[in-house]
Structures are given as C-alpha cells and as structure tokens.
Specification:
- The protein is an alpha+beta fold.
- The protein has a single domain, classed as STM4215-like (2-Layer Sandwich), CATH 3.30.2000.
- Helices cover 22% and strands 36% of the residues.
- A hairpin with a 2-residue loop joins strand 3 and strand 4.
- The relative contact order is 0.21.
C-alpha cells in the first residue's frame, strides 16, 4: 500500500509541465552512486512511518442485521492507520533547476493536497522540521544537501486481507439454580 501511495505522488508530479517524467520513487541516499540513475531527477524518499494513534480505538466488531434485528457480529483484524513522512529532493546538475523543481512540487501539492488511490483518500501537507533534524537526516542520507521539501501524508490505512470471523449472538441463557451450603 505504501508503494502505491508514493506512486500516486510520483504520477501526480510527472504530469506537470516542468517535471515531466523526471520524478522517481527511490532512496535519495544512493544519489552519489553512478549506477543509481538519480542524476537530474526529483526523488521521492520515504523517511519515516508513524501510527496514527487517534484512529487506533475504532471498534473491530461489525454488527450484521436482518431487517432491524441484529443476528451476529463479525470480528475483523484491526487495520493500521499510518502517517508517512516523505522527502522530495531535486537532484539536478544546475542549482537553479533544482530550485525551480522544488517550487513546482510545493505549488502542485498546495493546490492539490488530497489525493486518491482506488477508494483510499489521503492528505499531503508540507511538514517543517528544525535545522538540527534536517542536518541529521541529510547526514544519514549521505551528507550532500540539495533543495528538498518534507511532506506528511495522512492517513494511510493498511488492513490484513483476511475474512472476518463470525461471532453468533447469545439469544438464550439457561440458568439452573445452584444451592450453596
């Protein structure tokens, strides 16, 4: 699912006039490798994943009704709701082209901040990080700083593809008296 969301970002950016077919989903940390193919590209890299804790308490039981009468419940595995943090970096030969590309990325996602993959809608918003954290991230990715923007993608739902478990309702209780001495 995560790869599909990042592909939607890539496809959204690749249709733009200034970014036509130069946007790729890859690890920007490989930018110095001659065989990476990341020269003169705008690279989308997944930096972090976090669970959306506010969505964690949803009920796992779905009530199945016949008319207005409940007949059973289905127990579903709990989906994981995730926020994705991505970095979009312009690895261009000319610095001015990199600045133009990052400006275009910001423009596109400011005007179109709700995207969709099949029936899943997700929101993308610019995410600011302090200079210390930015330095740390670029240090982990190889040290060469280039024009980039960080985005938070909210909320991606990942659920197991397993059938729900049927749970029958208790419709009769048989109580026998127990005598305690």
């Amino acid at each position: 699912m995560i790869d599909n969301v990042l592909t939607v970002l890539k496809d959204t950016l690749n249709v733009a006039t200034d970014l036509h077919d130069i946007v790729v989903v890859d690890n920007i940390g490989k930018h110095e490798d001659d065989t990476s193919g990341l020269d003169n590209k705008v690279v989308i890299t997944l930096v972090s994943v976090e669970e959306e804790s506010t969505m964690k308490n949803a009920s796992r039981y779905n009530q199945i009704k016949t008319g207005n009468t409940p007949v059973r419940y289905e127990l579903e595995s709990a989906p994981a709701y995730l926020n994705l943090y991505v970095m979009i970096a312009a690895n261009r030969t000319r610095y001015s082209n990199a600045l133009i590309n990052i400006s275009k990325v910001i423009e596109i996602f400011q005007t179109n901040n709700v995207l969709q993959y099949n029936d899943l809608k997700f929101r993308i918003e610019l995410h600011s990080i302090p200079f210390e954290q930015l330095s740390y991230v670029w240090g982990l990715l190889g040290g060469k700083v280039m024009p980039s923007a960080f985005y938070k993608i909210s909320v991606v739902k990942i659920a197991a593809d397993t059938p729900p478990i049927n749970i029958e309702l208790i419709d009769e209780v048989d109580i026998k008296s127990i005598k305690v001495d």
